[in-house]
Write a structure and sequence with these properties.
Layout: H1 7-17, E1 21-22, E2 25-27, E3 30-32, E4 39-43, E5 50-55, H2 59-77, H3 81-97, H4 99-110, H5 114-132, E6 141-144, E7 148-156, E8 159-163, H6 169-183, E9 186-190, H7 197-206, E10 215-217, H8 222-230, E11 235-241, H9 244-256, E12 261-264, E13 270-273, H10 279-291, E14 303-307, H11 311-322, H12 343-358, E15 362-365, E16 384-387, H13 394-397, E17 404-410, H14 413-420, E18 425-426, E19 429-432, H15 436-445, E20 452-453, E21 468-469, E22 472-473, H16 480-484, E23 486-494
Parallel strand pairs: 1-5, 8-9, 8-11, 9-10, 11-12, 13-14, 13-19, 14-17, 16-17, 19-20
Antiparallel strand pairs: 2-3, 4-5, 6-7, 7-23, 12-22, 15-16, 18-21
Helix pairs in contact: 1-4, 2-8, 3-5, 4-5, 4-7, 5-6, 10-11
The chain binds nicotinamide-adenine-dinucleotide (NAD).
Length: 505
């Protein structure tokens, strides 16, 4: 976190960043008006204030952006690896220089606490730094045979479509742009229509570093432009982060030209607490994953499995910590739980809390709308813990995407693992035990992309993130995306002279 972000400084920054802004699409390094002329308003979910307007793009805008990316591709694909490295490092440096401002744009538009947003920007910086190391080493290989050599070139796939959600827009932008740029691809990015202020400000900041057409951004409703983008004949790959329902559509669009897809989707991750666990640390992690980014996190450990022997003691420790959660104005550096990102999301979470009660689970903390003095229009929800949850309840099976965690009691490991894996999702998971063999045994039995043992959200660049089953396929934040954004070409050079002699008879 940058030093000295006092409430006073944060408020001054918020006033500056909240001035109404209008954005065009970013195509060929120019901000251009949308073809249809329609716009979408961006607002602050903590106050209801308008922050700006973006273009509601259409297929004409998409076509312009894809053609710009296509025209830029040959030169960018052949650019010097160290040039791409320098650009990625300079992007990281610019993010660091204006870290507090980018964090504030994200906070204002998304409702997340400024400390969460500062963490997000740090995460973005590390993504660009991590992938800056790639271009120089992202080379092919040479295979030797007695009478031929095979040169396996690693080539960027071409124009890629990248579609991202609203919960961590800047982080998603970094996770998508950094590996694709490192690999030599050109890009059309479509951010979410409700939260993209920080993404557009970020693009404005780094525009002068990027050759024309290498990165293009078209804003608008997914339903209006998603198909035109993904099914465009010049697009060679789609990388998507968002919901399962949208993923199903995107896979259909991608089938038109048979382009490859990577999918980072939702989760309902299990957080298992064994009877030998450090209960204080486990309770802290449960409260953290309930409130972090207001629970609007695909990786959230929203299905807690507490061993029956420590169940009540764990709930007591959760209660002590949840009582201390500071919910308030997201721009206040002391705030730990902010406002939900949109009215739709707010209503959805409250309806799941009602559903949990109707299904017979008991609310032991929270359970409704929260009020924050001076922010009557804010979309605040109390951190909510359900006990008495069964794994077959909808609140245990469906992604709520809010500050709501359900606790399920367990007795034996076999039944535990059966329930943990009884989910359409398999994105992440937590495990709390002091027994090393048990940690390995249970983590290997969990059908999920990540398991954090004794610390949830322990994420570093280079660790592959992504899911199993309907949480998606493909990995990010690691070497894997460099493979997704490139393909190999094998050039086989015959070392022998003359004919083979097949017809010398
Ligand atoms: P969403 O699927 O509604 O929207 C995501 C993006 O897809 C937005 O940009 C939206 O405009 C676009 N979109 C919508 N309809 C489209 C269409 N027909 N064609 C193309 N694009 C379309 O998801 P959301 O509600 O914005 O995001 C929340 C979901 O994202 C949750 O399920 C969450 O778990 C998931 N998520 C996953 C990860 C991960 O890394 N696995 C990270 C963050 C969020």
């Amino acid at each position: 976190m940058p030093d000295g972000l006092t409430l006073e400084r944060s408020e001054a920054l918020a006033r500056e960043c909240a001035q109404f802004r209008t954005f065009g699409h970013f195509i060929n390094n120019e901000w251009v008006g949308g073809h249809g002329g329609a716009t979408i308003e961006l607002s602050n979910p903590a106050t209801g204030e308008l922050l700006g307007a973006i273009q509601a793009g259409d297929e004409v805008d998409i076509d312009r952006a894809v053609r710009a990316a296509h025209a830029a591709f040959p030169a960018w694909a052949r650019s010097e690896p160290l040039e791409r490295q320098r650009i990625l490092l300079e992007i990281a440096a610019r993010l660091r220089r204006r870290q507090a401002e980018f964090a504030m744009f994200e906070t204002l538009n998304n409702g997340k606490p400024i400390t969460d947003a500062l963490n997000d920007v740090s995460h973005c910086i590390t993504q660009f730094e991590y992938y800056a190391g790639a271009p120089a080493f992202l080379s092919g290989e040479l295979l030797d045979f007695p009478d031929c050599s095979a040169l396996v070139h690693r080539e960027p796939v071409g124009v890629v479509a990248q579609i991202i959600p609203w919960n961590v827009p800047l982080v998603m932008t970094a996770m998508k742009l950094a590996p694709a740029l490192a690999a030599g691809c050109t890009i059309v990015l479509k951010p979410a229509e409700t939260v993209c202020l920080a993404v557009l400000e970020f693009i404005a900041e780094v525009a002068d570093l990027l050759p024309r057409g290498v990165v293009n951004v078209v804003t608008g409703y997914g339903a209006a432009i998603g198909e035109a983008l993904v099914a465009h004949p010049l697009v060679r790959k789609v990388a998507f982060t968002g919901s399962r329902a949208t993923a199903q559509k995107i896979i259909q669009y991608a089938s038109v030209n048979l382009i490859p897809q990577t999918m980072e989707l939702g989760g309902k991750s299990a957080n298992i607490v064994c009877e030998d666990a450090d209960l204080d640390a486990a309770a802290e992690s449960i409260v953290l994953t309930t409130i972090f980014n207001k629970g609007e996190v695909c990786l959230a450990g929203s299905r807690v499995f507490a061993h029956r022997r420590i169940h009540d003691a764990l709930i007591a420790r959760i209660g002590e910590r949840i009582a201390k959660v500071r919910q308030g104005n997201p721009i206040d550096p002391a705030t730990q739980l902010g406002a939900q990102a949109s009215v739709a999301q707010f209503d959805r979470i409250l309806s799941y809390i009602d559903l949990g009660r109707a299904e017979g689970a008991a609310v032991v903390h929270g359970g409704g709308r929260a009020s924050v003095p001076g922010l009557d229009k804010g979309l605040f929800i109390q951190p909510t813990i359900f006990t008495g949850v069964r794994n077959d309840m909808r609140i245990a099976q469906e992604e709520i995407f809010g500050p709501v965690t359900g606790i399920i009691a367990w007795d034996g490991e076999e039944e535990l693992i059966r329930q943990v894996n009884d989910s359409v999702y398999g994105l992440a998971g937590g495990l709390w035990t002091r027994n090393l063999a048990r940690a390995h045994r249970l983590s290997r039995a969990m059908d999920t992309g990540t398991v954090w043992v004794n610390r949830y959200y322990n994420v570093r660049p280079g660790m592959p993130l992504g899911g199993t089953r309907q949480s998606g396929f493909g990995r990010e934040s690691a070497f894997a995306p460099l493979e997704h954004y490139t393909h190999s070409k094998c050039v086989v050079v015959n070392l022998a002279e003359g004919e083979i002699g097949i017809f010398n008879h």
